Amino acid sequence: MSERTVYVGNCGVDSGQIVLIDPCYAFDDDFKAGETPTGGNYDHICRRSLYTDDKCGPVGLPGSGYNNDLGVVVSTGYGDGSYPVHAKITSDNRIASVTIQFISED
């Protein structure tokens, strides 16, 4: 099987920017592999990225008070909207890259 690109979902934007961050810095709840789901946001995100076939999918992100080098922020080109996200998956089902398309190539 060769590398493939999959549609992950859309990122909704109301502030004209997107943040990429490890979710353990953005949520207060806990995740323990192999245990019953807690129902918390962090637990939900971990299960989405660790236990689904493509290891990715849409999730909601709350505000965070962390301010170190924990992630990156980028402007979204034209500001607010809903932007498609695609992941390139390797032949052994690992995420090689993620692309968020802010401006259509059309």
User: Widest sheet: strand order?
Assistant: 1-4-5
Strand content: 25-35%
Q: Label the overall shape.
A: flat
Extended strand count:
5
Q: What would you call the structural class?
A: mainly beta
Question: DSSP helix count?
Answer: 1
Question: Can you describe what's shown?
Answer:
The protein has 106 residues and is mainly beta. The protein has one domain (4-100). 10% of the residues lie in helices and 33% in strands. The chain has one helix spanning 41-51, and strands at residues 4-13, 17-21, 71-75, 81-89, 95-100. Strand 4 and strand 5 form a beta hairpin. The chain is flat and about 45 Å long. The chain starts with a strand and ends in a 6-residue tail after the last strand. Residues 61-67 have low confidence and may be disordered.
Write the layout of secondary structure elements.
Blueprint: E1 4-13, E2 17-21, H1 41-51, E3 71-75, E4 81-89, E5 95-100
Antiparallel strand pairs: 1-4, 2-3, 4-5
Summarize this structure briefly.
With 106 residues, the chain is mostly beta strands.
Jot down its keywords.
single chain, three-stranded antiparallel β-sheet, mainly beta, 106 residues, flat
